[in-house]
Amino acid sequence: MRILVIGASGYVGSRLVPAFLDAGHEVVAASSSAPRPERFAWGHRVDWARCDVTDRAQVAAALEGVDGVCYLVHSLDRRSFEDRDREGAEVVRDAVAASEVTRVIYLSGLVPDAPTQDLSRHIFSRLEVEQVLSEATSPTCSVLALRAGVVLGAGSTSFEVIRQLATLLVVQPVPSWLEHDVQPIAVSDVLRAMVEAFEDDRLTGSLDIGGPHVVPYARLLADCSRAAGLLRLRIPVVLVPPALVSAGAAALVAAPFWTVSSLVQSLRHDMVCRPGETWVPRDGRPLLGIRESMARAFGEPGSTPEAALPSDPSWTSTRVPVLDELHAPATVRAGAGLALKKARTVLGALPIPGL
What we know:
GO terms for molecular function: protein-containing complex binding. InterPro entries: ComplexI_NDUFA9_subunit, NAD(P)-bd_dom, NAD(P)-bd_dom_sf. The chain is an alpha/beta fold. The protein has two domains: 2-149 and 186-209, Rossmann fold (3-Layer(aba) Sandwich); 215-271 and 281-346, no CATH class. 37% of the residues lie in helices and 16% in strands. It contains eleven helices and 13 strands. It has a seven-stranded parallel beta sheet with strand order 3-2-1-4-5-6-11, sandwiched between helices. Helix 1 links the parallel strand 1 and strand 2 (26-31). The longest helix is centred in the N-terminal third of the chain and has 17 residues, at 81-97. Mean pLDDT is 86; it is low at 320-328 and 342-355.
């Protein structure tokens, strides 16, 4: 199958493309910016397309000659992300309807068991994109949304927010709503689910994908501190609204402000897979657990899909070379590193040596 990966240069896309290639598929790698094949070890093995999902001409051109579409676009890095994500989904839906595409898969997010009006903007937007893309379903084209919660791996936005908070805060306040459950999944297993889904077009609608463990968010934070070899004190606190925590977390970590704010607002719900509507690997291999996934995330760059890659955003890096000679506790070095990365984000990626 010839698969168009929209969002190929992003976190999941940069790891999914080689998984598709290893499975015998041809890949067209698409991103909204000009192609830069040299950034990726697999860059010379694929065709490239520039594809802003809100540009109908670019999307139509990218779809020429492909059999399947893998849609990985999420625009959390801006205030009005819902509008852009909806518009992009509508453009892709219309282009698919006018093409020869036979399979569309969207990486969505877990949807909690809550009234629609209670969903966070982030979750509601993912669900809305699902619904728009599902309208591309026809007798010749099947559509599937794979719903994932926290994706474990260096470079994953949700994991990086957890990692940076776990590393930076010696004393970690734990609001009562952080006792909601989460079912994280290793990025290796996300890739496995995506590859399998393209090989079985009987899977349609939506399917949840999650790892083998369900834990409270606070436990996930603790496991991340442990994986980093850090001792942290967690103190329960009450009456702290998610909006306040999201603003504070966004100020502390190096990720884009609107990304962090939107993700933290989603923590007020249980984010677990639906019984009977959850992906089960066809090959029978066990799913990676939380601790093994985190150990891989802190491992040698490029050694596993969970480990960091050179193509990951600079703000996700686990080390800052200019601070390697700083004789100070790990927390101090981590705090200084995050401050430098945050400054670089705000100042527009100025060439700070060693970052």
